[in-house]
Design goal:
About 65% of the residues lie in helices and about 5% in strands. The chain is mostly helical. Among the domains are: about 150 residues, no CATH class; about 50 residues, no CATH class. A hairpin with a 5-residue loop joins strand 1 and strand 2. The radius of gyration is 25 Å and the shape is globular.
Length: about 575
């Protein structure tokens, strides 16, 4: 089989295989349903994210205006450039997504076939393979979905108004605000409605949350990170801290730490093979990145205040090395080769400041190498500044700066250990790569109703069983769960082979499922997303998503050589 570069799967010779062997999910059905509901903490989290966004942008603009009034035009220009350029990049990307989602990119026949497949029978299947032929034969029965150019005058006026409204939103650099508000609205609507409207709003809310988390993560490391280094360098050179400078630097640092943790939470929530992250764990992860990024940027600022040219060379060299390291790891985030290269280059920018997981499996060695590299670089940059600092910098002030860098990095490392040892979603981690065994009631494992096939995504997200990394790398032939269950004494062993749940419509995607920490294809391929939303909205029963199962290394090799 082969896959198009735009993410549309096409099967050349192989039929879509049957569902992979089942493995049990220890969570009972009522628990899975409870996890799907939009909660008050989710609403408060979105509102806090909006507050972080406004505080970061407003403080930077206020500081730029203050530089201009003080006739410090050089600082004014640099501050304004690091605000405008990243914002324009994010607005262009956001408007491109909107234009694709709002225009007629999915053929009417395909969408009609999806609706028929969902509503025709309880066990209907819709496959991305040969979807054009199936849709052509059923479009007359299901009706053609209205595109942007169809419909009456009222509908045309509404669509024209939406285009105008979104253009104004993006021109005024408020795309992030609109997407946050839209995600908040979808979450509240999913809370107020009942099935089937509730699950449709929940699907849309998860897609909207994924979009805004990607956009804000990109914006944070293009805007907040260089802005933080710039303001710290100005403060160190001037040997004084203006209130607006401190406010801007603090807002940028909080925005960076917030978005890294928020991105990880939304990613885990979207992956059904991973347990969701609690807000307690998110807060600890924010503290982890807050102190490590703070120490990193302060070391950058100290060195840049003395050696501006060498600092630029160091940043470019570090970025090139990190990008090559990421590319060498063969990530699988995007749907095409060039998008993957661009993504790796963007992650290289993130690696300049903090750790960011891009590969599945044991992260112990990779994280240890990165942490030691960052520690050595921080020590070297701070030592060089201490030895070559200007005469206006006293020894007491220099020692204070060195202690702040060291203590901040130590605190960040402490919160990192707290997260992995106590608050990791998969349970306490021993040895940075092994999950500590958890006690799970045996009766939950023995229930056939809790069984789902691997590579099957039920709707809404967060409902698939957990799988271990080595199992995904070797295929479905390896048995066992990520948690080793120790049954109580006297209890009978659970039934090993459970009947997989097969009722309800199934959306079969003729692509292998991407490995964590990558997004699923239906989150990053907007055509798949659009088709799934049409199918889900017309389905009487919550549909499941099943990806192609590559069970043998030979089949994996054949697939990779044909993509």
């Amino acid at each position: 089989m082969a896959a198009k570069s735009d993410g549309a799967p096409v099967s050349l010779r192989n039929e879509i295989p049957p569902e992979c062997p089942s493995r049990s999910d220890p969570r009972p059905p009522q628990h899975r349903l409870a996890e799907q509901r939009y909660s008050l903490p989710d609403c408060c989290w979105t509102l806090c994210a909006l507050l972080v966004f406004f505080s970061d942008g407003a403080s930077d603009l206020w500081l730029a205006a203050d530089y201009y009034l003080r006739r410090d035009y050089w600082c004014f220009a640099l501050t304004l450039v690091f605000v405008i350029v990243p914002s324009v990049v994010v607005q262009v990307l956001s408007f491109r997504w909107f234009a694709y989602d709002f225009s007629e990119t999915v053929e009417s026949g395909t969408a009609a076939a999806a609706v028929v497949a969902a509503s025709g029978a309880e066990e209907s299947d819709f496959s991305t393979k040969d979807s054009g032929e199936r849709g052509a034969g059923r479009s007359a029965a299901a009706g053609v979905l209205p595109g942007p150019g169809t419909g009456g005058g009222a509908q045309g006026c509404c669509r024209a108004f939406m285009w105008f409204f979104q253009a104004i939103i993006h021109i005024f650099q408020l795309a992030q605000v609109w997407r946050y508000v839209h995600a908040l609205y979808l979450g509240v609507m999913s809370r107020w409605h009942r099935d089937p409207e509730r699950r449709h709003y929940y699907w849309c809310m998860m897609f909207a949350s994924a979009d805004i988390s990607m956009l804000r993560l990109l914006e944070s490391f293009l805007k907040s990170a260089p802005q933080l280094v710039l303001q710290l360098s100005i403060m160190i050179q001037a040997s004084q801290v203006l209130p607006l400078q401190g406010l801007s630097a603090s807002a940028s640092l909080i925005s960076l730490a917030w978005m890294v943790a928020s991105y990880q939470k939304v990613l885990r929530d979207s992956r059904d093979d991973k347990l969701p992250m609690t807000y307690k764990a998110v807060i600890v992860q924010i503290l982890w990145h807050l102190f490590t990024i703070g120490a990193r940027t302060l070391a950058f600022a100290l060195f840049a205040s003395v050696f501006q040219l060498y600092f630029g060379i160091f940043i470019v060299a570090h970025w090139c090395i990190m990008t090559f390291w990421i590319i060498q790891g063969e990530t699988d985030f995007c749907m095409s080769k060039w998008e993957e290269i661009i993504y790796n280059m963007m992650v290289g920018i993130v690696y300049v400041f903090c750790w960011f997981s891009v590969r599945e499996g044991r992260t112990r060695c990779r994280m240890l190498i990165y942490s030691l590299t960052v520690l050595i670089e921080n020590v070297a940059l701070t030592t060089v500044w201490y030895l070559y600092r200007g005469p206006r910098t006293s020894d007491f002030y220099a020692v204070i700066m060195v202690c702040v860098v060291a203590s901040s990095y130590a605190l960040g490392t402490f919160f990192m250990f707290v997260y992995y040892c106590l608050l990791h979603p998969d349970g306490p981690v021993s040895g940075w790569g092994y999950i500590v065994e958890k006690e799970v009631p045996v009766e939950l494992l023995a229930s056939p109703a809790t069984s789902l096939p691997p590579d099957v995504v039920s709707s809404p997200p967060r409902t698939l069983q957990r799988t271990k990394g080595s199992e995904r790398e070797q295929g479905s032939g390896v048995d066992g769960d990520v948690f080793q269950v120790r049954p109580p004494r006297g209890a009978q062993a659970p039934v090993p082979n459970l009947t997989p749940r097969t009722e309800g419509p199934v959306i079969r995607i003729d692509l292998p499922r991407k490995k964590y920490p990558a997004w699923d294809a239906h989150f990053i391929d907007r055509r798949l997303r659009k088709t799934i939303l049409v199918l889900e909205s017309g389905a009487p029963v919550t549909p499941r998503i099943q990806y192609r199962c590559l069970g043998t290394p030979k089949e994996v090799m054949e697939y990779e050589t044909t993509v």
